[in-house]
TrEMBL record:
The lineage of its organism: Bacteria, Bacillati, Actinomycetota, Actinomycetes, Propionibacteriales. This is CHAD domain-containing protein. Residues 1-271 form the CHAD domain. Signal peptide: none annotated. SMART domains: CHAD (SM00880). It comes from Kribbella sp. HUAS MG21. Pfam families: CHAD. It comes from the Bacteria. InterPro entries: CHAD_dom (IPR007899), CHAD_dom_sf (IPR038186).
Length: 271
């Protein structure tokens, strides 16, 4: 476990350095690093003594959320570009993309301020101190080959429980929750693969496939929600033509959910 925390801490430190250097994709890498560390802390929670991990997970979540808006806007802008057509008013599309880009620039600046701020420095210092010698329960002294399969099975069982409930008409939020659980299984399998070998690697590969499909689904959900809000704002500003274009784009992204849901269900329930 200590090795996983050290690796995760190094990954987060590197991502923060990328933000400091103004590198591409840096904010996203901070977000991913936080999520992987939170996943590892949850995976090993039954081995941890005390409640120190809860505070760390909360701090990591706050940092990830501070990076979320910028990443979401980046994805939404890319999807709008990808899914516009010659039928859409070019001027309206330019207006939409300009608005998204300006919002993205402001969100990225806010994210960078948090990532490079004192709270993140304190978090990294805490992680450095804890990662090398975490406070563990006696159970943690058992052989990895005995403990890790149980931990991975716990993550897999939660994913399967929720995935089995999904139907084509299930609300977006439920699909999003299964995506998060698939990601948790993938991270857990990656973390345990050094000990559990090919079986864990296969589990990670399956989870990555599910995560990718459900990630695309979530991107379309986020794009539809953002465009719908923009359409409501355009209508309030007495710009019905822009609102109409935004409405068409919104429905296009909502329609994109259906084949992704069908693809996931077909793949998940394949014998």
């Amino acid at each position: 476990m200590a090795a996983a925390l050290v690796k995760g801490t190094r990954r987060l430190e590197k991502a923060v350095g990328m933000v400091a250097n103004g590198e591409d994709d840096a904010i996203h890498q901070v977000r991913v690093s936080c999520r992987r560390l939170r996943s590892d802390l949850k995976l090993f929670r039954k081995l941890l003594a005390g409640d120190w991990a809860n505070g760390l997970r909360a701090d990591l979540q706050a940092l990830a959320q501070a990076c979320g808006e910028a990443r979401d806007l980046e994805v939404i802008a890319a999807l709008v570009k990808e899914h516009t057509s010659s039928e859409d008013d070019e001027e309206h599309v330019d207006t939409i993309l300009t608005t998204l880009t300006l919002d993205l620039d402001r969100a990225a600046a806010r994210s960078a301020e948090v990532v490079l701020g004192e709270s993140t420095t304190d978090l990294l210092t805490t992680l450095e101190a804890i990662a090398t010698a975490p406070d563990l329960k006696p159970k943690a002294s058992k052989p990895c080959s005995e403990v890790l399969p149980q931990l991975l099975q716990s993550a897999t069982a939660q994913f399967e429980q929720d995935a089995n409930k999904l139907k084509p008409w299930t609300p977006d939020d439920d699909w999003h929750e299964v995506r998060l659980l698939a990601k948790r299984v993938r991270y857990a399998a990656d973390t345990t693969a050094a000990v559990l070998g090919e079986e864990a690697k296969a589990t990670a590969a399956h989870a990555a496939t599910y995560q990718e499909l459900l990630g695309r689904h979530q991107d379309h959900c986020a794009a539809a929600d953002a465009l719908q809000n923009m359409a409501l704002h355009a209508a309030a500003e007495d710009d019905p033509e822009l609102s109409f274009t935004l409405g068409r784009l919104t429905e296009r992204h909502r329609a994109a959910r259906k084949p992704l849901r069908e693809q996931f269900l077909s793949l998940y329930h394949r014998p």
